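[agent] plan:
  1. take the single chain provided in the ticket
  2. run structure prediction with default settings
  3. attach structure tokens to the ticket
  4. add a short note for the reviewer (M.T.)
[agent] executing step 1
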Amino acid sequence: ETFSTVNVALFINGEFWGQYELREQLDNHYIAQHYDEIKKDDVVMLSFDWDTKNPGYKDTHPLFRVTYDEGPDGEEEKYFNDFMEIYTLITGGRITEPEIFEKVKRRLDIDNFIDYFAVYFFTDNIDWPGNNIKMWRTTDEPTENPEVYAKDGKWRFAVHDFDIAYANVDSNTLFYFTTPPAPADARVPQWAADMIKSLLSNEEFAQKFAARYSTYAGTVFSTERTTKILDYLVERAEAGLKNDFLRWNLNIRFRRVNRNPQQPPQNNQQNQQEQPQFEVDMDVIKNWKEGPIAYLRRFLEQRPQKSLKFLEEYYTKELKKEGGFTKISFMANPQEGYFDISGARINPEAYGDKLAYSFTSQYLNNMPVEVNFNYYDKKPLYIEINNNGDINRIEDTSFTYVPKGGEVSIKAVYKNDEIIILRDNVSIEGGKILVDATVVNNSDKSQDAIVFVLVYDKDNKLMGISSKKVEDLLSSEALSFSLDLNDEDDITYKILAQII
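[agent] step 2 finished; step 3 output follows
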């Protein structure tokens, strides 16, 4: 689970109390609001915490300190034992057997856990797994292929508390999570290390985690994407930082702003007038940007590639895999469909047209990658695999690819995709719709084309049209459009291209 958050200025009885983050709270209300047809009274939630000040529900259990956060009254034992049965299946020494892993998958959402685990690995969140674990399920009996997603009685994990995340870009967190330190450090207790290590020992889990993490390293966790998000968050927070620093005296140096500090006031009246006139030394904000923000930026710039090397290191040393990488690029027209790589769905709705159109990452050699092209209306003519010049065309949109080294491209090919339009940004400002797009030549020859933006009202009536001509296009060109909305706020739009 992820949680929406926004920066707010807090005032108490009219007095500014600082800048705060307003966040969604993870509880049964959250689940009911974000999952269709799941009621809050049908949610069970457990949390695991190493804080000895919190007695928890199972304080005396030899493995767990767990709290029953949500669920039917009087059924704590039932649901705790339910998770214990899954834990025993995982750590009982037989998880490498396919039938045992199938039993686990019927009661634990493995795809959810892989995504969850990937986030903690990438961010180097060392305040886990002995702490800050939250998991939930519905009261439904475990079932496969439910009519409503997540209403299947399977346990799912939710990310929680990242105060110590992004700790060390050079840390191989896979070893940290699976090798408990001295018993006094409960951040990686033996039970948690055993569970993670056992799951990684299962071949199906190891293959899916490796392929999915590699995909995320080139997309969701890519430097291009994460640094843009960081820039946005810094800009959003900076507006209120000056007053926040002033409110709490956070490393602030004050200075008078209305006279030379070397000239003393001429009289008491002048002194009284000048007393309250101070400003925050802007070096504080500069230091914030050049200190922790710059540190975080370096982490985001270096972690994708370093974490892939850490993945290889763990797989070669602990799982006895061959090692080495294959560079794979995936390409598709985002208007036609998107790639799903071992469960990592890189769709334009979530990640934008550019990532859905083309992404590249490093995949471990001889670790199978499950490739599925999810097309919208029309099936592609074929999937083209170009392996260092050796071209193979596959009609099936779902297949397994085993990397063997070198550089590979995998592309969904349509007859009519010589020109592709990528939506960069769409916004409404001042009664206008502003559209930034990139037109891409997807053929091997230069093209002339006209790009159209069409805007429709709520009755699907054409309100406006704007067009731009592109000549001798060899690769790509960025375009911007602006159309009046005529006070309409319920509109739709289309972007089209025509070769001329």
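[agent] step 4 note for reviewer: Residues 51-60, 253-278 have pLDDT under 50 and may be disordered.
[agent] ticket updated
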